[in-house]
Amino acid sequence: MSKNTYVMLIAIMTACGGLLFGYDVGVISGALLFLGKKFSLTDQGQEVVTSAVLVGSFLGALGAGWYTRRFGGRSANMLAGAIFVVGAFASAASGSAETLTMSRLLVGFGIGITAVAAPLYVAEIAPPDRRGMMITLYQLFITIGIMISYMVDLAAAPHWRVMFGLGAVPGVVLAVGMSFMPSSPRWLASRGRMAEAKKVLDRTLEPAMAESALRDIQADIDSQRSQSHWWLAFRSRAARRALIITTTLAVLQQFIGINAIIYYAPRIFQKAGFADAKAALWATLVVGLVNVIATFITIGMVDKSGRRTLLIWGLTGMVTSLGILGIAFKQFDHAEKQKISLNTSAAPTVAASPSANASADVASPQDLPSTPEGSETLAWLTLVCVVVYIACFAFSMGPLVWVLIGEMFPLQARCTGNAIACGGNYFANFIVGATFLSMLSAFGASNTFLLFASVAMITLLFVLFFLPETAGRTLEEIERDLGEVTPSGQHPVR
Ligand code: BGC
């Protein structure tokens, strides 16, 4: 097998972790339709089952820092696959809402571990000129996982046990497949196993590059040997900068609203005017497909045009599409308010009861001053804006956050740093998932989208001013770049 094929195989195998992540993000929306009835779940009960995965992922990501540092990325990925298989079967066999919640927590734990271990492991094995593309495969598999779960939801309904049980398949592939993969050379070297590290480098890199990589890794280890505790690694300027940049971007990745769209797309489309549930589901499937296809742009460009260029273009597109959505929904929110006040004045005695909302929903269109539940124009405008937003996310913030988390940390700070950044990502994911619907009803759709647009703008400014280019540099060169200060006291942006 050629070196290129071998490294590619490693990257694809590791990316199966992304498949687990994506599958479980998507599968719950379809399963909930039937679980709600089976276990008589209230809205809150459904929220608990849904967010159990995210809480588990947060805990898994934090624990993965210690585990990966001690046992390496290969072992962490195998463990994650095994945990996921157990969790998938336990979810499928659940007899009560409590056991289901615990099983989902376990699944989340496995996902959190791969989110830390997969990008880190691939970054340590990939050659510098293809590292961005190879870590992006992880994101590609997340998007494919989401698509597959939408399809399984459609095909397997109403059998929710099948939906959960099928998640074990990528878990088995990950656990078994990784056992045939090598350990990362940087981890081996950090454990003093230099001969084995050299062997892996010889199998994955061209001879001259393997020699210099080994020298760089050795020098890196020597310079950090005096640090007796992992937290001392964060005394270095490079580690601190990496931690601030990656954690900020990982949190902002969620606060620009991506999962509000992924989780609630059908509801947004219905609100905009695709009244028929089927039309809304088809529109959602389009979103899933665009998410997959646009990730290929990054695969083709990330190592040539660089991380910054893709992020700057993608974020500009997101600010614009979210801004247009915000303005378009202004008129709708206004009509909605008038609709509610018309209904309230017509039937004041029922205004405070839950059925008041239902009666507002069936108000006859002639009562309303302008658009009823959305309009055809708003529906199509929303679809176009959401598609542009998803495409821009998929070639920028989606993959690049994982690429940067994988490649920016110096060796000693790598596992802990990855764990903190990934933990931040899941925590923010949890907050958005838990608050989006309340935000919609408290502030209206327009203001919610405008809020996401402002966060995207802040992210764009952050990238412009604080993110150095890392494309084509070795991990050791990135560490040197991050540690450098120019005479004016500014960090260089390459
Ligand atoms: C994000 C996920 C999101 C997915 C969508 C990932 O990069 O971390 O939260 O669901 O992209 O494709």
Structural summary, described in words:
The protein has helices at 3-38, 43-93, 97-125, 131-156, 160-165, 168-179, 185-190, 194-204, 207-224, 237-255, 258-272, 277-305, 307-346, 355-361, 376-395, 397-407, 414-466, 475-483. It has 494 residues and is mainly alpha-helical. The longest helix has 53 residues, at 414-466. It folds into two domains: 1-183, Up-down Bundle (Growth Hormone, Chain: A), CATH 1.20.1250; 236-486, MFS general substrate transporter like domains (Growth Hormone, Chain: A, Up-down Bundle), CATH 1.20.1250.20. Bound molecules: beta-D-glucopyranose. The site of beta-D-glucopyranose has 12 residues, from helix 4, helix 11 and helix 17. Beta-D-glucopyranose (BGC) is lined by residues 25, 139, 142-143, 253, 258-259, 262, 291, 398, 425, 429.
Name the beta content range.
Answer: under 5%
Computed CA radius of gyration, to the nearest angstrom? 24 Å
Alpha plus pi helix count: 18
List cofactors, ions and other ligands: beta-D-glucopyranose
Shape: globular
Task: Please give the CATH architecture of the largest domain.
Answer: Up-down Bundle
Largest sheet: none
- Kindly report the CATH topology of the largest domain: Growth Hormone, Chain: A
Going by helix content, strand content and strand pairing, the class is mainly alpha
SSE ordering:
HHHHHHHHHHHHHHHHHH
Taking pLDDT < 50 over at least 5 consecutive residues as the criterion, the unreliable ranges are 346-372, 487-492
Overall mean pLDDT stands at 85
Q: Considering the protein shown, what is the CATH homologous superfamily of the largest domain?
A: MFS general substrate transporter like domains
- Cα(first) to Cα(last) distance is 36 Å
